[in-house]
Amino acid sequence: MDLSPNYLADLQVYFSGHGEELDLYAALFPALEAAFPEARVKVQKSQISFYGKHLFAMVSIPVRRKKGWPEHCLLISFGLGRQVADPRIAVAAEPYPGRWTHHVVLSRPEELDETLLAWLREAWDFSETK
């Protein structure tokens, strides 16, 4: 993966005070790196962004939480050309016709499974066709 020059320092700032979320990200990142070795990663103020030709996935610490969400979790967001109807999708919105943004709550490393990776692969493929 192509990491921004200050990736590790930026990561520490982003997860400052959120050790459990950093541990989740540390479990998530190797799976993303293996699945998308050609991706670029950029740590921003509100999220960690993953790019191919275009943005295809984001990881963030939830700012606004829905009732029932775990206290410590990450939100994995990705765009698809269709809406996925699945209980794991916490929120789905269509900001543009034919472009659906999906949000999945990740609270345990084992939730990063083949289903989630398949959605992320589809998001990669969708972003590459824009």
Record the SSE blueprint.
Blueprint: E1 2-3, H1 7-14, H2 19-35, E2 40-43, E3 48-51, E4 55-60, E5 74-80, E6 89-96, E7 99-106, H3 114-128
Parallel strand pairs: 1-2
Antiparallel strand pairs: 2-3, 3-4, 4-5, 5-7, 6-7
Describe this structure in words.
The protein has 130 residues and is of the alpha+beta class. It has one domain (2-128). Helix content is 31%, strand content 30%. It has helices at residues 7-14, 19-35, 114-128; strands at residues 2-3, 40-43, 48-51, 55-60, 74-80, 89-96, 99-106. The longest helix is centred in the first third of the chain and has 17 residues, at 19-35. A hairpin with a 4-residue loop joins strand 2 and strand 3 (48-51). It has a seven-stranded mixed sheet with strand order 1-2-3-4-5-7-6.
